[in-house]
Design a protein that fits this description.
Radius of gyration: 26 Å
Strand content: 15-25%
Number of domains: 3
Strand order of the largest sheet: 7-9-4-3-12
Number of helices: 11
Shape: flat
Length: 394
């Protein structure tokens, strides 16, 4: 009779495999012969193990791995291989100390877990009996998200006709000066809370309100319910305010903001840094710019494309029409931003194609004239100027 391994035993087995991989690591071969079958097999095996252990560690490993392509300079590959050596060593040590026994703990055998970890009375009244049932746990998420909706609506004193994401968008704004419910004066914390509530509505509320499913386990439903339980006190403690909406004549339009009613794009730190960046299979001489793409008030997805221009010091013109958004990794592919979404990230822009692996010095431009040109499929077009003191060589 075949015995099914416990979840904790499966994880422990993966940790042991990762340890064996670390012992087999040949750092010199990894960067000197990165295209060798042995190197490829080792990288693939470690990636597969980390994928099953932790998604975050898997992504971190893949970010290091991308610097080992044969087209990348040897010095860069050596540095990446040494980083991988340290990373895997650290992860093996961390995982060996980790207690995976929680994976084997089931709520049905430990009913006290439910009452210990859900404190909100309304949430307990509506969800505890459903969690103790034998099936149909989508009902737990349905009720838990409905409690979250009701708490936001009641606190913000909004109409009952608003629900889901529309309700969250009306009550919560990433800008503390424009929100009805202010959870924090810190814009990043306020935005984080907005994104969490919107995400819960999109990923959990909508599916369980519009469809029936038996795929949700008791443990999964409990986790969602317990997480919502942590959000409810923050809503109760939030400040209710009247958003500040400046008049159109009083608005001071800066080079990093645009007087458009739809999508907005701004510089995150204002820096344009020229360097030889590792992109996909190549090293690409390009400007790196960090952006905030804001489609929070949009009611449909949009796509963003970019270019740069400047006057050359010798009197000519410089134009960069090729770009790669971080995370997209495909040259000249427009960046998709969803409706009601705000994204922060980097984009690389150059006057050469990404497959051009020859290193180029930063063009001799008049820094006062460097501009970022933004266009969207929705028809928005605007220009962002740079502070010449923030145009640097990386």
């Amino acid at each position: 009779m075949t015995m099914t391994m416990k979840k904790s035993e499966q994880k422990i087995g993966l940790v042991e495999e990762l340890g064996k991989c670390f012992q087999a690591l040949n750092v010199n071969q990894l960067y000197e012969e990165s295209d060798h079958k042995t190197s490829k097999d080792w990288l693939a095996e470690v990636a597969a193990i980390l994928k099953n252990l932790d998604e975050g560690d898997f992504q971190a490993f893949m970010n290091l791995r991308q610097h080992l392509y044969p087209s990348i300079p040897l010095a860069t590959r050596k540095h990446a291989a040494e980083q991988i050596d340290g990373f895997v060593r650290q992860k093996v040590a961390e995982y060996k100390r980790y207690d995976f026994s929680y994976l084997d703990r089931e709520i049905k055998n430990n009913p006290e877990d439910i009452s210990n970890y859900i404190h909100d009375k309304e949430l307990r009244d509506r969800c505890l009996d459903l969690l103790e049932a034998e099936s149909k746990y989508d009902r737990v998420i349905n009720q838990a998200t409905q409690v979250l909706e009701d708490r936001v609506r009641t606190k913000a004193k909004l109409t009952d006709r608003l629900e889901g994401v529309r309700l969250i968008n009306a009550a919560l704004n990433p800008d503390p000066s424009k929100t009805v419910l202010k959870v924090s004066n810190d814009p990043d914390e306020q935005q984080g809370f907005c994104d969490i509530c919107r995400g819960i509505m999109l990923a959990f509320r909508n599916p369980t309100h519009h469809h029936l499913t038996d795929k949700i386990t008791r443990e999964e439903a409990f986790k969602v319910c317990a997480f919502i339980d942590t959000l409810l006190p923050l809503i109760e403690k939030s400040t209710v305010s009247t958003p500040t909406i400046p008049s159109r004549t009083a608005q001071n339009i800066t080079p990093a903001a645009q007087p458009h009613s739809g999508i907005k794009v701004s510089l995150q730190d204002g820096v344009a840094s020229w360097a030889n960046y590792a992109m996909a299979h190549h090293v690409w001489s390009s400007f790196r710019v960090s952006l905030v793409i804001d489609n929070y008030n949009g009611n449909r997805p949009d796509y963003v494309s970019l270019s740069m221009t400047a006057d050359l010091a010798n009197g000519g013109k410089w134009a960069a029409n090729h770009f790669i958004f971080q995370g997209v990794e495909k040259q000249d592919e427009d960046f998709r931003i969803e409706a009601n979404e705000v994204k922060k990230g980097s984009v690389f822009i150059s006057d050469t194609l990404a497959h051009d692996t020859n290193k180029k010095a930063m063009p001799e431009i008049d820094k006062k004239t460097l501009k970022l040109h933004v266009s969207t499929r929705s028809g928005e077009k605007f220009v962002i100027a740079f502070d010449e003191n923030k145009i640097v060589r990386g």
